[in-house]
Amino acid sequence: MWGTILVALLLPADIARSSHHVARPTHNVAQGFQPCERDSDSLAPHQTTAAPQTETVAAIQVQGNTATPDEEVLRLADVRTGMAFDDTTVDAVAGRLRSAKRFERVEVRKRFASIADSSQIMLVIIVDEGPVKIVMTGDPDRPTRVVRKRLPNLLILPILRHEDGYGLTYGARLTLPDPKWMGKRSRVTFPLSWGGTRRAAIDLEKRVDGGMLDRVTAGAEISRKTDPFFQEDDDRARVFVRGEREFGRVLRLGAITAWERASFQGVADQFEHVGGDVVLDTRVDPVLARNAVYGRAAFEHLRFGDGPLATPVDPARYAGYQGSVNRTELDGRGYLGLIGQAVLAGRVLREDSDRSLPPYLRPELGGLSNLRGFAAGTAVGDTLVSMSAEVILPLTSPIKLLKLGVTAFADRGTVYNKGERFSDQTLLEGYGGSVWFAAAFFRLNIAVAHGKGASTRAHVGGNITF
Fold first, then answer.
1. Predicted local distance difference test score (pLDDT) of residue 252
2. Which of 53, 114, 298, 415 has the highest count of CB atoms within 10 angstroms of its CB?
3. What is the mean pLDDT of residues 212-241?
């Protein structure tokens, strides 16, 4: 009772009248949270409600523009400091910039211009104008200015290579990097070459993150080259799609499907093929591999159909191909470090099929690719087996841009037709040495070898790659 009297004396009369609601818990609070009953006339004199603050654009930043002045970007965006900011401002500004069709990419971000006052907003406008270039104006005060490129950003790179048995191939490779319709990490390439291999093609490449495949390529091409064994033109037309997936930088899986037309000795074959390959490659530098291995296994199924065969004028010439055939390839290489920079390298290669192949698909023996000391295209067959041993001695430091070295080698190989056995074959042998150069995108290999039972000959191979 004395506590109640003390409260009545110390508190104002209007609060004292409602003190019984605060001092004692009600039945509703004991059961659970319920809104408390309040006397509106007792709390109203003491309540204040803050008025909502209107957000205002206090500052604007423009980023990424090179050819377009800030003032022009602001004019296109129709935005200025002091204007009101609401929930639709960011999307509206971005939409106006995109509708101007002056930028490849537009992004608008909201930032707070002041820590103390959250109603002050900064707009950050980020634009991408795409490729730009510098042009001369002729004005001594402002001799240059930056303008947008109207034409695609096309790269032109040379094609120059010498292939043993086919001669010199030259031309140009036109590359369009990251076209809009393919997105980032993509390119479209147009190789055009003449000489040993005459080829016109379009190649598309796309790198993909987080998918089942991390690289997809597709293309179409027409080509012609002279077969070194038959001395006949081999004309091809081809359309293909290929997908690849890499695991841990050393293992790569690939699959391909394609349609192809081959014209050889006056006969045209059409066939589809599907295939896959597995590559294990632990080499850090393929030019100077050391204590590493490389292995590739590939399978390919070709279906020619059952159309009628051609009737050649000469019965001894090719008359066409029917049915299906499977091809396999096994390629294994090893590199063992010796004293100093010397490396002992070995290779075994086998190409095979389950039935006799058309002449333009048969593997050929000889040349830099599998048997030095014999001319490229010395012999052809349905199955090829070759092996080699090399001692590679680099003469320069591996960290230098220009790499120079010499190699001593011994090659053995044979090729034979279906129905024959490897154990019945006589392996051809070649011995010799080579000097090689490698500098960034340039490779050159000059080998001199003696073929056992044949002659001594030089082999030259090289290319420019990007």
1. 97
2. 415
3. 95
Closest CA to 77 of 111, 121, 119, 124: 124
pLDDT in tens, 53-89: 789 999 999 998 888 889 999 999 999 999 999 999 9
Question: Is residue 110 domain-shared with residue 212, that is, in the same domain?
Answer: no
Structural domain includes residue 447: yes
- Among 117-126, 134-143, 149-158, 441-450, name the one with the lowest average pLDDT: 134-143
Question: Which CATH number belongs to the domain containing residue 120 in this structure?
Answer: 3.10.20.310
Q: Do 206 and 82 share a domain, yes or no? A: no
How far apart CA 143 and CA 5 sit, in angstroms, is 92
Whether residues 112 and 242 share a domain: the answer is no
What does each C-alpha distance from 112 to 92, 125, 127, 348 come to in angstroms? 19, 14, 20, 67
- Same-domain check for residues 343 and 452: yes
Domain that holds residue 192: 160-309+320-464
Surface-to-core class of residue 376, CB atoms within 10 Å of its CB (0-12 exposed, 13-18 middle, 19+ buried): buried
> How many structural domains is the chain composed of?
2
383 sits in the region (left: phi over 0; alpha: psi -120 to 50; else beta) called beta
Per-residue pLDDT tens over the stretch 253-275: 999 999 999 999 888 899 999 99
Measured CA to CA, the distance from residue 351 to residue 415 in angstroms comes to 9
Residues with Cβ within 8 Å of 142's Cβ and at least 6 positions away in sequence, in order, are: none
Q: What would the two tokens of residue 233 be?
A: 């033109």
Asked whether residue 165 falls in the same domain as residue 114, the answer is no
Task: Label residue 12 by pLDDT band (50, 70, 90).
Answer: very low
Is residue 169 domain-shared with residue 211, that is, in the same domain?
A: yes
Q: What is the pTM of this model?
A: 0.73
Compute how many other C-beta atoms are within 10 angstroms of the C-beta atom of residue 345.
Answer: 19
- How far from 53 is each of 58, 114, 407, CA to CA, in Å? 14, 14, 80
- Model confidence at 42: pLDDT above 70: no
CB atoms within 10 A of CB 284: 12
What is the distance between the alpha carbons of residues 104 and 153, in angstroms, rounded to a whole number?
14
What pLDDT does residue 154 have?
83
pLDDT of 51 over the 60 cut: no
Beta bridge partners of 146: 134
Contact assessment for residue 186 and residue 218, using Cβ atoms and an 8 Å cutoff? no
- What are 450's two structure tokens? 């003696």
Residue 100 near residue 39, CB atoms below 8 Å: no
- Residue 143 has a CB neighbour count (10 Å cut-off) of 10
Q: Residue 154 falls within a domain, yes or no?
A: no
Burial of 463 (0-12, 13-18, 19+ CB in 10 A): middle
